[in-house]
Design a protein that fits this description.
Membrane topology: Single-pass type I membrane protein
Shape: elongated
Number of domains: 3
Subcellular location: Endoplasmic reticulum membrane; Membrane
Strand content: 25-35%
Oligomer: single chain
Family: Belongs to the DDOST 48 kDa subunit family.
CATH class of the largest domain: Alpha Beta
Number of strands: 28
Helix content: 10-25%
Main location: endoplasmic reticulum
CATH architecture of the largest domain: 3-Layer(aba) Sandwich
CATH topology of the largest domain: Rossmann fold
Subunit structure: Component of the oligosaccharyltransferase (OST) complex.
């Protein structure tokens, strides 16, 4: 009995520390061998969660990212921001294909122009010109101007609240209007890009005139930004690899105040590797009111009931559980354009169940039940079910329609009037005529 209890305790302890991704646990880390030790705390944190790490030099040919068109790893980390050329299997096109295969990426940039910098433009990011890192004169500190402390936002779904400031050194980038972008960490409002790293003093002005990005300054610039594809894959762009380093994780913000780099790096990786904010639709069903049998054919003005089951991934135990905290989920009943858009609220007492009742529109055609839930940071929820809506059959119409009573009364009054006219005509007096043309009464 004692041994059994010990086994239970060991299993509970193992489960509490076991937190893998919802999409896989294999990770390829592309980093110079001599720089692996610079990221020990971050990489050990991934191992503690249960990830299987494989390392590859930026100029090595193996292991391959894909073999026979199938991704070899669930996640790829690029800690080689200064590498200008990679082997043939690492190209902007191959990385985009990896995202299409639901492989997640964590990419770090630098103030140097590389192929990864060019790839960033495909994700609506505009890095500052080469040699112009982010700098700030505030707050006053002993570190170089391009080593900037940044306070993470307290309203982010991705990051914990009240996180300590993090150290950042690298390049900022302007954010486009792509709705798939997920801002994670923006530059301070008093920071800007400058040429202290060997760039030209006129490079920023020249780039602004050519690209129209304006000066890279203020809190609208991003330094860590996520991007979530329509397939659910995620990629995180970080302006500097030092953000994940042991040096910045151990560097104090001020006397006695530890930096938040270690926690920040782990939480960013959790989002990038689809541990956090991962949702899915398990099941949907639809039927007429007061029935339980689904149908592919409904009649105009039918009362319909639509139900969806939503669950969320919990990395603490690596399981999916029903999730009822979505307060803004909506359902569309659409034919080209939505004819009905209605809230899809959670059902009290049924975890993860969302249901709504509505009347089918008075329009026949091919319709779709559509859930298209897109919120910053969360997995996109998309479900589409096709049904047909038809007019009633000839024997399904009511015997008498209340709106047609004026026509009924007109028909009835016409019939009654014709009957009375006929009775009077046939039952009235008939005169007989003699041979002389004079009429006499018939006997």
């Amino acid at each position: 009995m004692v041994a059994f209890k010990r086994l239970l305790l060991l299993a509970a302890a193992f489960a509490s520390s076991y937190a893998k991704s919802s999409s896989g646990d294999s990770v390829l880390v592309i980093v110079e061998p001599k720089k692996q030790a610079d990221y020990t705390l971050f990489l050990d944190g991934l191992r503690e969660k249960g990830y299987d790490l494989t390392f590859r030099s930026p100029r090595a040919d193996a292991p391959l990212l894909t073999q026979d068109g199938v991704p070899s790893f669930s996640h790829v980390i690029f800690f080689a921001p200064d590498t200008k050329s990679f082997p043939s299997d690492i190209t902007p096109q191959s990385l985009v294909s990896l995202l299409g295969s639901k492989t997640n990426l964590l990419i770090t940039l630098s103030t140097k122009q590389t192929s990864l910098t060019s790839l960033a433009a495909e994700f609506s990011l505009a890095p500052a010109p080469p040699g112009t890192p982010l700098i700030s004169y505030f707050p006053e500190r002993s570190e170089p101007l391009n080593v900037v402390p940044i306070q993470p936002p307290s309203t982010s779904h991705i990051l914990s609240q009240n996180m300590a400031p993090v150290w950042f050194s690298g390049t900022p980038f302007a954010l486009g209007n792509n709705p798939m972008l997920v801002p994670i960490l923006n530059a301070p409002p008093y920071a800007f890009a400058s040429e202290v790293d060997g760039g030209s003093a006129d490079s920023l002005v020249d780039a602004a005139e050519k690209g129209g990005e304006g000066l890279w300054a203020g809190s609208r610039m991003g330094v860590v930004t996520g991007f979530q594809t329509t397939t659910g894959a995620r990629v995180v762009w970080a302006g500097g690899a030092e953000l994940f380093s042991d040096e910045y994780a151990k560097k104090q913000i001020s006397q006695g105040v530890e930096s938040g780099n270690k926690q920040f790096a782990q939480e960013v990786a959790s989002w990038a590797f689809q541990e956090s904010l991962v949702l899915r639709i398990d099941h949907t069903e639809h039927h007429k009111f007061n029935t339980t049998t689904p149908s592919e054919l409904y009649t105009t003005s039918d009362e319909l009931v639509y139900t969806a089951q939503v669950s969320r991934f919990y990395p603490e135990r690596g399981v999916w559980k029903p999730y009822s905290d979505l307060k803004d989920l909506q359902l569309e009943f659409t034919m080209l354009d939505p004819h009905i858009r209605i809230a899809l609220p959670p059902v009290e007492g049924k975890p993860g169940t969302y249901s709504v009742q509505f009347r089918a529109p008075d329009r026949h055609g091919v319709f779709k039940f559509v859930i298209n839930y897109k919120r910053k940071g969360f997995t996109h929820l998309l479900s589409s079910t096709t049904v047909s809506v038809v007019p009633p059959r000839h024997d399904e119409y009511p015997r008498f329609i209340s709106a047609a009573w004026p026509y009924y009364m007109g028909a009835i009054s016409t019939s009654v009037g014709f009957f009375l006219f006929s009775a009077i005509w046939l039952g009235g007096e008939v005169k007989a005529f003699d041979k002389k043309g004079k009429g006499r009464k018939a006997e």
